[in-house]
Structure formats: C-alpha cells, structure tokens
Specification:
The chain is mainly α. It has one domain (about 10-285). It is about 70% helix and about 0% strand. Helix 8 (about 210-235) runs antiparallel to helix 9. It is elongated and about 90 Å long. The N and C termini lie close together (about 5 Å).
Length: about 300
C-alpha cells in the first residue's frame, strides 16, 4: 500500500510509484500511435466519408463506458475496503484475546494460546498471498506443530484449532469455568470468521463477463475515438486520445488490482505491517521485547 504525503501539484503530475502508468503505458502509446496514423491518413484525404464530423456517438458511448467503469471500480473498492475492515477486526480480536487470556488463564497457557493465535495470522497471510511464512512464525512453537500445520491445505484453520485446544485443556483441568471458556472461544470464533471472509474475497472474483465487457468497451472506444476527433482537432488527436486512454485504461487496470487486495501490488493491503501490529500487541501484553513497526520502503508499505 502506498503511504506518502500528498506531493505538490508538479510532483503529483510526475509521481510514478503507486501509479498504474507503468502497467498501461504500452497501451497508451499504442493508442496514441494509432491516432497519429489515423490523423496522417485523414490529412491526406484518404478517409473521406469515414471520419466522423460529430462527436455525439462518442459522447454517448463515453458516458456509458464511464458509468460501467465507475460501477466496476466501486465494486472492487468495496472488496478492498471489506478486506481492510476484516483485518482491522483481527487486530481487535487479537488484543481482546490477550486481555481476556490475562484474566482467566495462567501465564503459561496465556502465552501458548497467543503464540498459536499469532501463528494463525501469519499462516492466513501466507495462504492469501501463496507465500512461505515459516520464518515468521513464533519461535516458541514446536517444530512438529509447525510442520503439521504447513503440511495441510489450510494451515491457518489448523493453528486456530490448536489455539482452541489450549482453552479445552484448561477447561478439563478445572482452571477455567464454562463462562471463561466461552469468553475465550468467542474471540477465536471471531478470528475464524475473519479467515472465512478473507477466503471469500480472495476466491470469489467479479464475474468474468463483467470484467470482459468493461475491458473490451474501453479498448474499442479508445481506438474508435481518433475517427471522431481528427476532423475537429487535427494533429492534437493523438494527444487527446492518449489522455482518454490513460483515464479509461487506468481505471480498468486499477480495478483489476483492487479486485484481489491481498497481493503485493503497490495498492494492495499491507498484511505484513498488520501482522507486525499483532506481534507488537502480543509482545507488550506478555512483557516481551516488542519489534519495531514496519516502515514504508520507497513509499510502499507491505
């Protein structure tokens, strides 16, 4: 995720980090070159009867395309924001679990359940990003437990079950009553709901036909636009075509990035930083040395 102060007007125009321009620049240049070719041909009177002398069809098509891209970007932003809310709730559940654990559990069991809950967050991050997270798991976890978790298809759910085992063992040993066990399990249940919501977002893309419609319409519009502009703006046709292509191609590409918010694109969620927040919360609650918060690198927070 891009984290930076808003630059001045001139620097804002030249900002590259976090922009979609690197992804769509070839398409912008191609549309501009195509517009230049159409302009050259029209200037030599080879397009008599083909070039449009009215922009009304392009105005109507542009309005429809703008609405389509706006609706699609709203849908993808809602997915991004829901994902951020869910991981924000995880911070609440983690801090609440360590607080309730301090009330009802012995220091040993409290530490054990928090290490497993912390491992659950890292494992969920690894599942969503399809990355190896063994090195990020708490060192106090047994190697057998870690190996068993990583051998499964859903290691995060397995580790959350093992966190529940701590509550069950304390209940069987008579260390907590049913009310305390229910209070602890309530926060584990909340973490399970967050995992389910994250998996739903990650595994349920927008309907492909919807994405294809917006993508095709944007390209058709940008490559037909020079025919409508050339009679009115002449050699400025490539410039205006490139600007329109930047807008529509950029919105199309941005919606693709935000559709899957758990990756490592510049505008995706900073799951590494959120997991570090968990580590700090747990360490400070347990009286351990807390790590430093992650800082943005080149304005990008992972």
């Amino acid at each position: 995720m891009i984290v930076r102060d808003r630059p001045g007007a001139f620097r804002l125009m030249l900002a590259w980090k976090g922009s979609v321009v690197p992804h769509i620049l070839p398409h912008i240049l191609l549309a501009g070159l195509f517009a230049a070719a159409i302009t050259w041909v029209a200037r030599h009177h080879y397009l008599e009867g083909i070039v449009q002398h009215t922009l009304l069809p392009f105005t109507l098509m542009g309005i429809v395309l703008s609405i389509l891209l706006s609706v699609r970007n709203t849908a993808t932003y809602n997915r991004w924001w829901e994902a951020r809310q869910q991981w924000g709730y995880m911070v609440v559940e983690m801090r609440s679990l360590v607080r309730v654990g301090g009330i009802y559990l012995s220091p040993e069991r409290r530490r054990e359940i928090m290490m497993r809950a912390l491992a659950h967050a890292h494992l969920l991050r690894g599942q969503l990003r399809e990355e190896e997270v063994r090195a990020d798991l708490p060192a106090s976890l047994s190697a057998d437990l870690v190996d068993r978790a990583l051998s499964l298809r859903n290691p995060a759910a397995f580790m959350l079950q093992r966190a529940g085992d701590v509550v069950a063992e304390a209940r069987r040993a008579g260390e907590v009553d049913s009310v305390a066990a229910a209070a602890l399990d309530d926060h584990l249940h909340g973490m399970a709901e967050i995992q389910a919501a994250s998996e739903r977002i990650a595994q349920t893309p927008l309907p492909f036909a919807y994405t294809l419609l917006a993508h095709r319409t944007a390209y058709v519009y940008c490559y037909l636009l020079p025919f409508g502009l050339v009679s009115g703006v002449g050699w400025f046709t490539p410039v205006f075509t490139a600007i329109v292509a930047y807008t529509f191609f950029g919105l199309d590409r941005l919606s693709e990035q935000m559709e899957f918010p758990f990756g490592r694109e510049a505008n995706d969620l900073p799951l590494d930083a959120i997991c570090r927040v968990h580590e700090i919360s747990v360490a400070e609650a347990l009286g351990d040395p807390a790590p430093e918060p992650l800082q943005p690198v080149a304005f990008e927070l992972q």
